[in-house]
Specification:
Protein name: Glycoside hydrolase family 1 protein
Number of helices: 15
Mean pLDDT: 98
Bound molecules: 6-O-phosphono-beta-D-galactopyranose
Largest sheet: 8 strands, parallel, barrel
Radius of gyration: 21 Å
InterPro entries: GH (IPR017853), Glyco_hydro_1 (IPR001360), Glyco_hydro_1_AS (IPR018120)
CATH superfamily: Glycosidases
Organism: Serratia rhizosphaerae
CATH topology: TIM Barrel
Strand order of the largest sheet: 2-3-4-5-6-8-13-17
CATH architecture: Alpha-Beta Barrel
Low-confidence stretches: none
Distance between the termini: 5 Å
GO molecular function: hydrolase activity
Keywords: Hydrolase
Number of strands: 21
Strand content: 15-25%
Oligomer: single chain
Length: 460
Amino acid sequence: MKYAFPQDFWWGSASSAPQSEGESLSFGKSATIWDEWFRLQPERFNQQVGPQQTSDFYRCWRDDIALLKRLNHNSFRTSISWARLIPQGRGEVNPQAVAFYNQVIDEMLAQGITPFINLFHFDMPLAMQQQGGWESRAVVQAYAEFADVCFRLFGDRVKHWFTFNEPIVPVEGGYLYDFHYPNVVDFSRAATVAYHTMLAHALAVRNYRARGQDGEIGIILNLTPSYPRSANPADVQAANIADLMFNRSFLDPALRGSYPQELVALLRQHDQLPPCQAEDAALLAQGVVDLLGINYYQPRRIQCRDSLVNPDSPFMPEWFFSHYAMPGRKMNPYRGWEIYEKGIYDILTNLRENYGNPRCFISENGMGVEDERRFEQNGQIQDDYRIDFIREHLQWVHRGISEGSRCLGYHMWTFIDNWSWSNAYKNRYGFVQLDLASQQRTIKKSGEWFAATAAANGFE
Ligand code: BGP
């Protein structure tokens, strides 16, 4: 076989509690920031579809796990909803949630599917947001308690934990670019949120290790390789700053246990360093992960700014660079994201060459497409574009592995078409098509292709 993958390679897909469970205000679950934002501004959500309308994993978990099995998944990632497990964010545990997650984990194991469990997927409980969200040190502590409850309740069976999915996204969305609640635009608040998130991560890692459970703990980062427009030093420096701000601000603490000095110096120079306490550095040093999840969708194309910054304008990352569209680039027009398959290989190479070749896996990669019904023939969506997308990314992953990268698996985003952050059901990503009204599931052509690839552990 031309593209054979290592033995025990993780083949699967990823999802999250808020995007799949439904029942977002029932069975003891309290509101998250998404329920609240939908209540306040439903017009922000595509066709006014909010987080209550999903593929209803809360009820359909048994059938859905059977479908995962049918797609030859040997592993699957989802998340535990903090607002479902501990509705007030702190304190009392919801027994209905415990029963639900126990059933899900047990059924996955019974079907031979290894559960990968993530603890935070953009879904801050509203009760915690009302106390300041990630701007508050008390919330950092509350998150660590929630993580500990999860380790205690489920850690006998879950062996692959993740503290956060894409922790930079709530920073960008909620505090810089206005696409998540609480939709403020303020760099210094954003920096505090980012910093506290990594403190929360490190606390959870430290506490997990203190339990001595037999398993591993990691984090899932969306890495966006930052390519300069030219070899001109100004473009290279601009790309370097974008890399520091959007990748290394999380990657370095996760893999090295500390922030890049260059980033610290830059923020200090502009008086944007978040408030630190004396004991933080030692805590961050304990947050180095056992396993890194890599979400890869698109690269970042960077050039130097062509105009001077107005020093009276609010401080923003864009003080240091501009984006540009690479001529001839391949695009996913529905999501507006560039498709650049080699980026996934460049990430693996960077990790190997500059970060000591950590154990890692591709935890998300995927292609959201609008109005997929157009591609239906004889009752099945013929999503050859998605098969090509996966195959071309996997070829680069394969090359990275053959050069020595310790990439242990590939999880696709996502299993069943799911609800997405304000886009709702506009872009479909699933191996399985969802009819939202009837809740009917139909495997797409890509799902069949993936099942065959997983069974063969590779492809020609
Ligand atoms: C990632 C998130 C997922 C998922 C995916 C697709 O950033 O981890 O939750 O939603 O992107 O993005 P979107 O749904 O915004 O198109």
